Amino acid sequence: MASNLDYIRLNTLSQKIKNNTATKAEKDEYMLSLYQNGSITEKQYKEYKADGNTGEQVLQAAMVIGGIILFASLLGEIFKA
Is residue 2 within 8 Å of residue 37, measured between CB atoms? Predict the structure, then answer.
């Protein structure tokens, strides 16, 4: 897991997407963060950017990936002490 990922921002964006309050720019930021972190592939990122139904499906799959990343980050913080 890359340490340059902003977990707080990722969580904020994730919650907005989950609550259907995220703007297109926020969804784009979420997906770009996961792509730059290596959490989703270039193919997945390009499919998302192509938009349409495939893009929404990729976004939903990325939400699961983001949730796992956030959970792992939380566990890391718990066991740091």
Answer: yes
Gap between the Cα atoms of 73 and 76, Å rounded: 5
Distance CA 24, CA 32 (A): 12
pLDDT per residue as tens digits for the range 35-63 = 999 999 999 999 999 977 778 889 999 99
Tokens of 60: 């939903």
**Angle, CA of 1, 15 and 25, to the nearest 5°:** 85
Rama region for 40: left / alpha / beta (φ>0; ψ in -120 to 50; rest): beta
Q: Which two tokens stand for residue 23?
A: 């703007």
* CA–CA distance, 71 with 50 (Å, rounded to integer): 29
pTM attached to this predicted model = 0.81
Rounded-to-integer distance, Cα 8 and Cα 68, Å: 14
